[in-house]
Amino acid sequence: MTRRPSDAEQEPxxxxxxxxxxxxxxxxxxxxxxxxxxxxxxxxxxxxxxxAGRIADFAFGYGNPVMLRRFRIPAAQRDRYTLxxxxxxxxxxxxxxxxxxxxxxxxxxVQDVTYDTPFGDGYMLGTFVQxxxxxxxxxxxxxxxxxxxxxxxxxxRSYADLVAHDLxxxxxxxxxxVSLLERRRDEPPPEEVLGLLRASVERASALxxxxxxxxxxxxxxxxxxxxxxxxxxxxxxxxxxxxxxxATLQVRELPEVDGDPRQLRRLLQNLVANALRxxxxxxxxxxxxxxxxxxxxxxxxxxNGVGVEPxxxxxxxxxxxxxxxxxxxxxxxxxxxRRVVEAHGGRIWVEAADGGGSAFRFTLPR
Length: 366
Known about the structure:
This protein has three domains: 17-145, 2-Layer Sandwich (Beta-Lactamase), CATH 3.30.450.20; 146-216, Helix Hairpins, CATH 1.10.287; 221-366, Heat Shock Protein 90 (2-Layer Sandwich), CATH 3.30.565.
């Protein structure tokens, strides 16, 4: 099973001889003291040059505690990898060329960068404003986390699109049907017109409820929660749909966690309902299970449905994203799931399940 590393406290990297040589022992100590408490991620890279003096790679130097925690970097990584060994996708990239240019010319470089990739023995995840400047024969890199800001900007654009299209469509439909009824005031309203009007109202209401659920998903009231109890409530709520689909719901041992029972119940209900909605021709089989390590639980909701194409695996957690337009829905449910999990300090992702279908996994701190 693929899983994301936890946010456990990281062991410091230790001394950086090249930093000591550049700044002197006292200056290096002051540099580290200043940046050890800095609220943003800071790292130092030293140029590795070939016999002709050209930069071939970079070695890791100092990394402040925020950098190590942010990318789940173990202390041994600095001596185990160079930059290109830890992040081979960077070879031949525009970013590597910019690093070399900064180191050779001294001209700083600023860009937005998004990571969701292994990084040596760590894992880089998030969107950052990256500021890179020359430091001796190397670089100092500052990373400002703008993940939530960029996501909110994207979702505001999506919300504007929703209002302009998805929500406007049922409202226009309702206005048209009301006009039709007004022209026939002396006649009983046809059943099909009432049905269309009702469907438009339900569609608009579902969109509004989904947006409200997403907005409130980050509001937590934390207490000790037994996940198996929440699943029992979800199963009872979804029993008509489970029975109608001939579905089986298997629940293995689930833990107690610290969290908001309302939000965690919404998370589980959305994932189970999603498995029912995206079922294949076979009777749905849904299994809930959990694994633990020293820092977190990894909870899995596995199904035997149609699965998720790899190119959609990240996109489906975005606001109003829909992987299958043929299946009715608002495209908000998985965005709510992601928001609930992240509010609890965890992560959520989807993988292909063995034998077909999907395995939605999320982490919760222990």
